[in-house]
Amino acid sequence: MQKRSIVPIVYILFLMLPIYWLVAMSFKTTNEILAGFSLFPQTFTLENYKTIFTDPSWYWGYINSIIYVSLNTVISVAVALPAAYAFSRYRFLGDKQLFFWLLTNRMAPAAVFALPFFQLYSAVGLFDTHLAVALAHCLFNIPLAVWILEGFMGGVPKELDETAFVDGYSFPRFFATIFIPAIKAGVGVAAFFCFMFSWVELLLAKTLTAVAAKPIAATMTKTASSAGYELGLLAAAGTLTIIPGAIVIYFVRNYIAKGFAMGRV
Amino acid sequence: MKTENQKAWFFVLPVLLLVAFNALIPMMTVVNYSFQETFGDNVFFWQGVDWFEQILRSDRFHAALGRQFMFTALILVIEVPLGIAIALSMPRKGFWVPVCLVLMALPMLIPWNVVGAMWNIFTLPDIGLLGYFLNHVLGINYDMTQDPLAAWVTIITMDVWHWTSLVVLLSYAGLVSIPDAYYQAAKIDGASNWSVFRFIQLPKMKTVLTIAILLRFMDSFNIYTEPFVLTGGGPGNSTTLLSIDLVKIALGQFDLGPAAAMSLIYFAITLLVSWLFYTLMTKDDLN
Question: Which Pfam families does its entry note (chain A) (predicted)?
Fold first, then answer.
């Protein structure tokens, strides 16, 4: 145990405290939460989770969110791959300007663009579909995916491409069987970032859906009913939103740890 | 060396189409609104640049912009050095690396309204863990719904909690990509820890730090959901950041024109500052 490992330990403890509080609350009754402070649940209850798992309007929120997030991750990474390749290997008219323009799309205040987004997606008949949210989230995820992938591709020597072409590989075959495996850590990291930003973004997801594709975040506003806040239920729903993310990081943890190191980034 | 190839445009085309569909059409709508006045029923009148003038002269906008710059400056000043420090003290290999990374990435994967709601309850004076501890154990009078300073401390702490890990992950990625040979050479030369940091680690982290700083700048400048859920902009207007103010105008009072003009000014400021960061941080690479 080195002395300097105290820094990460303290930091992780700081990160875990609010999460612990949320999880602890999810096992309390709303009455107990409101009655006063208690570090552990006094009357341990699974009632909050039971509500979520038995009420379709609750669990469909999670399913909807997972559908559009997966869709978005697939679309973003699929279109970002060839684009990142072009940026990393070729010079072409306006390439630098284009790269910076892509980045600027993270800067538009989503809060204000929500209404135009609603009008746009209603006009093309995609309102309240999973595809609408998946496409809208491309606005900020594609630029990031291009950026990350370009970094990883820059780390792959150009000789790899040249050797493959000399060996008679066609471009699509080279790309699919040699190039993508060479940067698969980068693909993992890019997919992780797309997943993360799509999963946590709510304003657009909420604006673009009504019933059929309603995300969990919108369902959660139900807990503030006329009877007052149902804090226990809110905490349980919040706890469950952490789980898909945690599963994804668990699977890409090695990519995050080693993956970054491979690329120039 | 990169080769010149205009056909590369075809590779970029899908990205271009998807992003342009999402960016240009809503942007045109906003530009459209910003020059017009409406009295409902979709009837619009040409208004010229009145809204822009009105916004640029309003004290309310200046106040919100000031708070926004203060917020962003504070979180950059706290999160970037803190993130680098944590990344430097993390283990380089072994079992604890993935454990650290997974635990640290966790806050970033929580939806933004959940983050706001969770911090709200966490800091409530009588029933929240932090609020109870500060008020009843340490005896500090802390209530973010009443005291502007407490509200500020809370939103800054929440953002540090939420996003420092992004800086940590990216800096760490830059650090582990430094070959051992560099450290060995530094050791032979008898370099101090500080010079190792200054002349080896920091330059190697530059590219990833550029990404980290730009991302943190853009995202904190546009932050909406978390502070809105946490404090609703209060107490009073003390934590009404730019985007919260914007939504109040756009949806609360339904003044589409001023809201659109304001968001264009807002966008222009973000763009300008990001461009400055980008050029300053990448100018060495271009030479």
Answer: BPD_transp_1 (PF00528)
If asked whether residues A58 and A80 sit together in one domain, one would say yes
Is B48 inside any structural domain? no
The total of structural domains in chain A comes to: 2
- A190 and A150 part of one domain: yes
Q: How many domains does chain B have?
A: 1
State whether B267 and A109 contact (CB < 8 Å).
Answer: yes
Query: Higher confidence at residue A35 or residue B35?
Result: B35
pLDDT in tens, A125-143: 889 889 999 999 999 899 8
Give SS3 for B36: strand
A49 located within any domain = no
Residue A199: list chain B partners with CB under 8 A: 109, 111
Dihedral sign from CA coordinates of A248, A250, A252, A253: positive
Q: Are residues A87 and A184 part of one domain?
A: yes
Q: Is the Cβ pair B165, A15 closer than 8 Å?
A: yes
Token digits for A261? Answer: 């190191």
Instruction: Mutate one of B21, B88, B109 to test the A interface: name it (highest A CB count within 10 A).
Output: B109
B3: in domain: no
**pLDDT one-digit tens code per residue, B124-162:** 887 788 888 888 788 788 788 888 888 999 999 999 999
This prediction has a pTM of: 0.86
Structural domain containing residue B217 = 58-285
User: Diameter of chain A by CA atoms?
Assistant: 75
The predicted model gives B91-96 an average pLDDT of 80
- Position A262 scores a pLDDT of 46
Interface of B with A in 10-39 (CB under 8 A): 11-12, 14-16, 18-19, 21-23, 25-27, 29-30
B172 lies in a domain?
yes
Q: What is the ipTM for the molecules in this complex?
A: 0.84
Regarding whether A30 and A61 lie in a shared domain, the answer is no
